Amino acid sequence: MSVNVTMPALSPTMTSGTVAKWTIAIGDRVHSGDVIAEIETDKATMEVEAIEDGVVAQILVEAGTQNVAVGTIIAVLAEDGEAIDEVALPAAVPTQGENAVQSATPTATPPAPAALASNAEEKPAETTEEKSSGTGMPPENKPRIFATPLARRIAADRGIALEHITGSGPHGRILKRDVEAVAAPANGAGLLSANSMHVPAAGGASELVANSQMRKSIASRLQESKQQAPHFYLTIDCHIDDLLAARRRLNEKAPEGVKISLNDLVIRAAAMALIDVPDANVSWEGEHTRRFQHADIAMAVAIDGGLVTPIIWAAETMGLAALSQTTADLAERARQGQLRAADYSGGSFTISNLGMFGIREFAAVINPPQAAILAVGAGEQRPVVVDGALGVATVMTVTLSADHRAVDGAVGARWLQSFKGFIEHPVTMLL
Q: Any idea which residues carry the catalytic annotation?
């Protein structure tokens, strides 16, 4: 009996996704656990594994198809002993959105593999992307390439063949840095001729770039946040000279492989302040306000094409060494597109740090359904007055954006005072 492969729900909030790439072709034999496709959700691009053995009889949704509803049948496997030409197509393929593929008219008997090959000869030549994805060559004639979804996307954009790259990841897996270390093949595109230097560029030139599922989700969620959550903003300056000195001493004593960052200390201080002022550790839910028992802090990580917010669960319970290793692991897996749904679903508070870009001060948009987000600027030396005398101190400006439905101004101010206390007196974070 044939086995239907459906669009999986890769996160609790996922209702549809994009079939970014197939790694199988009709006639291929797959085993349980084999990667058969890459699905782009509103959070990341994830690999989908087969859950049963079989032979690929039909691929019903083409690579690149957007807004495919969860539960849609996207492929059909024939079981052992079952001929491909005996597998009947599903009666209907449920889809969602304008760009989703509609199922073909059901036929009692789908075309045999030989007929499919004959029809393929009449179609235009395959694109480079189609060839590299493995849709036109059986696995026995082409070795399987292990690469992260992000590495595959970058390679496709730059015209780089993954077959010639040696991966530095576990078991030879090709990572983003491996692709970026390889120069794209020179094909003469974009080179200037001797006369082109004298030709003025045409004004008003532009191009349309399709929005990814992630970009659409970010736009929808943040627009909803600004429209529904009444934001207010509180800004405070923190003197961080003692914090920087403590960080240097901690790193001198830290175990090998552990390097505590300023962002780790900010996360620790925010977690301690949330426990100290629990009225700020909440979210608005209409008839109720949810109060969280732990400081589940989401940290904003910029990736190609968008932003993700992996979560440090119960951050107040973690030591600085464990916190540093956790944040480094989450950030790396976020950039490689390897986060699990549990890594980014939920959280009680978000931190967005743009200090590494030299941004002095900014206000962030609340990450719904949370009630607050902290925007962290760069630490820089500024003139300050201490005990009536002018001096110089390293100052970091932070801005709290809060949802006034759940957090009052006085609560936000108390939380900032608590946060400032932990930052300026770092030894108190160890109590």
A: 404
Give the separation between CA 54 and CA 171, rounded to whole angstroms: 26
pTM (predicted TM-score): 0.64
Any domain includes 133 = no
Residues 48 and 175 in one domain: no
- Residue type for position 322: A
Give the range of the structural domain holding residue 253, as residue numbers without chain letter.
230-430
Gyration radius of the chain's alpha carbons: 26
Determine if the peptide bond prior to 143 is cis (ω within 30°). no
Please report, for residues 67, 84, 276, the alpha-carbon distance to residue 118 in angstroms, rounded to integers and kept in the order given.
31, 16, 70
pLDDT (tens digit per residue) in 83-141: 666 666 665 444 444 343 333 333 333 333 333 333 333 334 344 443 334 444 444 45
Total domains present in the chain: 3
Residues in the chain: 431
Q: Is residue 217 part of a domain?
A: no
Task: Examine residue 307 and state whether it is found in any structural domain, yes or no.
Answer: yes
pLDDT band at 380 (very low <50, low <70, confident <90, very high): very high
Quick check: 82 pLDDT over 80? no
- Read off the tokens for 343: 């890594």
* Beta-bridge partner residues of 394: 381
Asked whether residue 171 falls in the same domain as residue 241, the answer is no
234 within 8 A of 417, measured Cβ to Cβ: no
Cα–Cα distance between 275 and 429 in angstroms, integer?
Answer: 12
- Whether residue 220 is contained in a domain is answered as no
Please provide residue 56's backbone torsions phi and psi, each rounded to the nearest 5 degrees. -65, 115
- Same domain? For 165 and 252 the reply is no
Q: What is the pLDDT of residues 268-311, one digit of tens each?
A: 999 999 999 999 999 999 999 999 999 999 999 998 878 899 99
Do 91 and 161 belong to one domain? no
